[in-house]
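Hello,

Our lab assistant flagged a job as stuck in the queue for most of the afternoon. It eventually completed. Since we weren't sure the result was trustworthy after the delay, we are filing this so someone can double-check. Below is the sequence as submitted and the structure that was eventually returned. Let us know if re-running is recommended.
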Amino acid sequence: MRTSLLRTTAFGLAALACFLTAGPPPRAGLRDLDPIRLLGPLPGIALPFLWQEWGRARKDYDLKASLAALRWISRIRPDLPALHEGLAWQTAYDLADLEADPEARAARLSQALRVLDEAARLRPEDPRPLALGAFMLGDLCRPARPGGSELARAFEDSTGTKPLDLARTRLELALGRRPELRGIKNLSYFLAEGCDRHALQALAAGHPKAAALSLARAARILQGAAPRRAALRRTLAGLLERGGVLPADLLPRLNREPILRRIVRHWPGGR
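-- returned structure --
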């Protein structure tokens, strides 16, 4: 009863905050003010309950509730773009691995793409959600991947669209937002960079397991374009999972990449 009341209160406060910020632009003189800030502490009051709801929904694999909480969180904290990408990855890879048949995995992939569509709508200048969707379609449905051909057929049967055609469409839309990403290496580096930054933030906040997940995702993204960089991130992810110490002979390789050099500085327990 209490949990339900808190959840209703949180969503009510978030709805009020977002309603008050969704009206027409302010008149001249107030045009440069952030409407969320004008509300003072009101959105922040709802935020802890929204985080709790999002965590519960993810733990219960409740995609609909996860997305609902994410919509409110994104309005209050638009500076946290990794949330949608993390949920989409969990849905397309982690949850799909629990499914026995290609049709169920195709449904999970479609759900993940809807999460990324939501992110693309909320961040109309950011190419990352579209690019990540293109990567997922190409990675999961490639013939060389075990079960990839079966997943591709199931996805086409359920959506009426060939996954690689949809991947190309999403990629072109992403390039329309950021033309310099053209080329598989540029795209892979761009997506992996986001995972690396999220790993750094997680380590700085004292969450090594979350950092390991992000580095493992970066490794998967880089595997085709830069296998050595992928292997390095896979090694770091494994060390973080085990709570291991960084080997001294690994440091020169890490120091060649600025983002990994910063990750070293935040390594649990020091180097």
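-- support follow-up --
The delay was a queue issue, not a problem with the job. The result is valid. The CA atoms of residues 54 and 191 lie 24 Å apart. The chain has two domains: 50-182, 184-271.
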